[in-house]
Design goal:
Elements: H1 3-16, H2 19-27, H3 42-49, H4 52-60, H5 75-82, H6 85-93, H7 108-114, H8 118-126, H9 141-147, H10 151-159, H11 187-211
Helix pairs in contact: 1-2, 1-3, 3-4, 3-5, 5-6, 5-7, 6-8, 7-8, 7-9, 8-10, 9-10
Length: about 210
C-alpha cells in the first residue's frame, strides 16, 4: 500500500470510529497528523463525528490540536460547529486554544452560538472563551445568536458576561444592532454584513462537507 493510500485509509478509519484500524495504521508508520488534500486531519474527522475513543488515542499519540484545514479551521472549530460537547472538552483538556479565529474571524464560541449548541457554548465559556471577540464583519457570538433567535444561547451569553453586559458587535454598533450616529450606518447595513458573513461561511462549510470523504 502506498503512502497516500495508507493516509486515506487512516483518515477513513478515524472518521468511521474504527479504533483497531487507527492503531494499526499508526503502528505501520502513518503520521498521526496526516491530512487530506483539504487539510483535514484524523483529529478533525473524529471531532466532527464524535469519536471519543479515536480522539483519546490520537491525542495520546501526539496529534496536534492546532492543526488547521486549508480554510483555517482547527479540530475545536469543527467540534464546536457540530455540537460535539465531549469532543470540545477533550480538545480543551489537550490545550486547544478556545479563542482561536478561523475563517472570517469565527471563533469556536461563535460557531457554537450560531449552531444553537447550548451545552457547547457553556463548556467553552467555562473554559475561558472570550465572547467579546468579533468576526471580521464585527459580529460577536451574541449577535449571531440573537439574530437567529437562539434564546437559550443569548440568555447564557448574557448571564456569563462581565457585569451582565456583552457587546452584540464591534465598537460603533449599538446593542440593538444599529451603528451609532457618528458612524453613519443603519440596521440594514449591519444585518447585510452578518448575512454576507453567514453566506460565506455556509459556502465554505458546504465545500468542506462535500470533500470530507477521503
Amino acid at each position: 500500500m502506498g503512502q497516500s493510500d495508507a493516509n486515506n485509509g487512516f483518515l477513513r478509519a478515524a472518521r468511521d470510529g474504527n479504533l483497531d484500524e487507527v492503531i494499526r495504521f499508526i503502528k505501520d508508520g502513518v503520521h498521526v497528523n496526516a491530512c487530506s488534500q483539504n487539510g483535514l486531519s484524523a483529529l478533525h474527522m473524529a471531532s466532527k463525528e464524535g469519536r471519543v475513543s479515536i480522539i483519546r488515542e490520537l491525542l495520546k499519540c501526539g496529534a496536534s490540536v492546532a492543526v488547521t484545514t486549508k480554510s483555517g479551521n482547527t479540530p475545536l472549530h469543527v467540534a464546536a460547529l457540530a455540537g460535539q460537547e465531549e469532543m470540545v472538552r477533550l480538545l480543551v483538556q489537550a490545550d486547544a486554544n478556545v479563542n482561536i479565529q478561523g475563517p472570517n474571524g469565527f471563533t469556536p464560541l461563535y460557531m457554537a452560538a450560531q449552531g444553537n449548541h447550548v451545552t457547547v457554548v457553556k463548556c467553552l465559556l467555562a473554559s475561558g472563551a472570550d465572547q467579546g471577540i468579533a468576526t471580521e464583519d464585527g459580529f460577536t457570538p451574541l449577535a449571531v445568536a440573537r439574530q437567529q433567535g437562539h434564546d437559550k444561547v443569548v440568555a447564557l451569553l448574557l448571564e456569563n458576561s462581565a457585569g451582565g453586559e456583552t457587546p452584540l458587535s464591534a465598537p460603533g454598533v449599538t446593542n440593538d444592532g444599529c451603528k451609532s450616529a457618528e458612524h453613519g450606518s443603519s440596521v440594514a447595513q449591519s444585518s447585510s454584513a452578518l448575512a454576507s458573513s453567514k453566506r460565506s461561511w455556509a459556502s465554505r462549510l458546504g465545500r468542506w462537507l462535500r470533500n470530507k470523504k477521503t
